[in-house]
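Structure in, sequence out. Go:
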């Protein structure tokens, strides 16, 4: 059977509802995070990227398994990509949250990426307040690597939000 290679706005809302019912702190990141900041979908998305409170990793995985997800790529503690025939790809990133609003994420070299509290925001999208990576955070997350066409698209959207 062919894999679902596009996640829809409805898939996004369904995933957000799963996180909210589970009472797990999260932020939408990646392409959907850019589109949430833009207030509309601007391009097709293969997956949904979500950063979440790392202390709930096992709880979250168990919940996602109940929704039919299976682990596709396991790079714990950096990221876990899951796949569901219903919802498509979900790329989750465990963040260690600090009391001052900052956070950190493990990197593949065994160290940490550290994030200021202003990397986290929430905006209204489709009539719902959705936690997401801030404009500042998205701009930084879209740097430091060779940009693909979709990254260049996202950066142009981010630049237009700034104006």
């Amino acid at each position: 059977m062919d894999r679902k290679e596009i996640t829809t706005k409805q898939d996004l809302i369904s995933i957000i509802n799963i996180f909210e019912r589970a009472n797990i702190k999260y932020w939408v990141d990646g392409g959907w995070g850019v589109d949430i900041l833009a207030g509309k979908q601007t391009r097709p998305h293969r997956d949904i990227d979500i950063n979440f409170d790392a202390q709930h990793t096992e709880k979250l995985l168990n919940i996602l398994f109940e929704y039919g997800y299976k682990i596709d790529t396991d790079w714990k503690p950096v990221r876990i990509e899951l796949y569901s025939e219903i919802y498509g790809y979900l790329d989750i990133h465990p963040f260690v949250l600090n009391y001052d609003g900052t956070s950190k994420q493990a990197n593949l070299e065994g160290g940490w990426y550290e994030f200021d509290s202003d990397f986290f925001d929430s905006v209204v999208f489709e009539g719902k307040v959705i936690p997401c990576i801030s404009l500042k955070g998205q701009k930084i997350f879209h740097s430091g690597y060779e940009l693909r066409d979709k990254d260049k698209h996202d950066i142009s959207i981010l630049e237009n939000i700034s104006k």
